[in-house]
Specification:
The chain has about 325 residues and is an alpha/beta fold. It contains 11 helices and 12 strands. Helix content is about 40%, strand content about 15%. The structure holds nicotinamide-adenine-dinucleotide.
Length: about 325
């Protein structure tokens, strides 16, 4: 990965969970990194996420919906890791227009800005398994029909396809990673907006019981360092241009098993299995796990962290830094 040494990199959503972990790795690799983030309090951005590298990156607190900021920021960048997003499925149902503005409209405007002011840039877009909706078969490969179950899934799908369209029609090199549940240090644990696993971790560290809804749903999980590696590979590889790749994990696990494992690794804790709340049940996708053979085969990506190892690191991080995430 010497490749990144001296490269100009822009990360949207760079103070968020995945963006900040990516930033840390890129700083290690010698890249010249700029982060843009709006720090909207309900989202996952947190200045503590870049503790220790704050003097090695440029930070621009602005909104990707602001075309003027983006016009200034994309110029002279070699790579854009495009991760800014509204991530809550429930919020997207309660306030669909904000989700539309950030996950769909702003994506088109970022691409237009690149086309006009920096057509040589390469973009990796953070998409989501949510675009598939309720799986028709498992594991879900990239050919699976796209039929999102919530507003967030529809807007992310549009955001993803704008990237592929700009690649195909205008030659703005872009590809997309369809992330599954991603977890690790620096995720939002204050509430369940980003992931249910966030509140589980918080409860475990605080010594409080947590709720598991359903429990039998199968899922796969990507540890954040593995996701970061996928972003780095996708940006470097020219054969990734115009492609969408699923990311999965090392294993498939039910939520009940995951809860049991979390308690074991934490060395204690309690949970209760409960029925889904009605408003959640309506947008639940049931079982999901990815067929991620394409990215493994074509880009040589291979996750290194099974859930046990990833959870241990995550719990350890929040034991030391809980106060910065409440
Ligand atoms: N974490 C997951 O499990 C997961 C799964 C699938 C897809 N993704 C995608 O990966 C990306 C990163 O997710 P994350 O988990 O790091 O979430 P996150 O909320 O921690 O990061 C997103 C960041 O984007 C910023 N942001 C939001 N709206 C913005 C705006 N209008 N302008 C500028 N910045 C804005 C937020 O402040 C936040 O820091 C998102 O696009 C998300 O849809 C994540």
């Amino acid at each position: 990965m010497d490749f990144y040494n001296g490269k100009q990199i822009l990360i949207t959503g760079g103070l968020g969970f995945i963006g900040s972990n990516l930033a840390r790795r890129l700083v290690e690799l010698g890249a010249d990194v700029t982060l843009v983030d709006s720090l909207i309090p309900e989202y996952g951005g947190n200045l503590f996420n870049i503790a220790g590298i704050e003097h090695k990156v440029r930070i621009n607190i602005s909104d990707v919906r602001d075309e003027h900021s983006m016009r200034y920021l994309v110029q002279s960048q070699d790579y854009l890791f495009n991760l800014a997003g509204q991530t809550s499925h429930m919020d997207s149902m309660q306030d669909p227009n904000t989700d539309l503005e950030i996950n769909c409209r702003a994506q088109l405007s970022i691409l237009e800005t690149c086309r006009r002011y920096n057509p040589k840039i390469k973009i990796v877009f953070a998409s989501t398994r949510q675009v598939y909706g309720k799986p028709a078969y498992l594991p879900v490969d990239e050919r699976h029909l796209l039929r999102p179950m919530d507003v967030n899934g529809i807007n992310k799908m549009a955001g993803e396809w704008y990237h592929i369209l700009y690649n195909n029609v205008y030659g703005i090199r872009a590809c997309a990673l369809r992330l599954t549940n991603t977890y690790g240090p620096r995720m939002r644990i204050k509430d369940a907006r980003q992931t249910f696993l966030g509140v589980w971790i918080r409860s475990l560290v605080e010594g409080k019981p947590f709720e598991v809804w359903g429990g039998e749903q199968l899922r796969d999980f990507t540890y954040v360092d593995d996701a970061v590696e996928a972003f780095l590979l996708a940006a470097v590889r020219e054969d990734a241009n115009g492609q969408v790749y699923n990311l999965g994990g090392c294993e498939v696990i039910s939520l009940r098993e995951l809860a049991e494992l979390s308690v074991k690794i934490n060395g204690g804790g309690n949970f209760q299995v409960q029925d889904f709340p009605a408003e959640r049940k309506r947008i639940d996708i049931g079982d999901y796990y990815a067929d991620d053979r394409n990215i493994r085969k074509e880009l040589g990506w291979e996750p290194q962290f099974n859930v046990g190892k990833g959870l241990a690191r995550t719990l350890n991080y929040y034991c030391s830094h809980l106060e910065h995430y409440l």
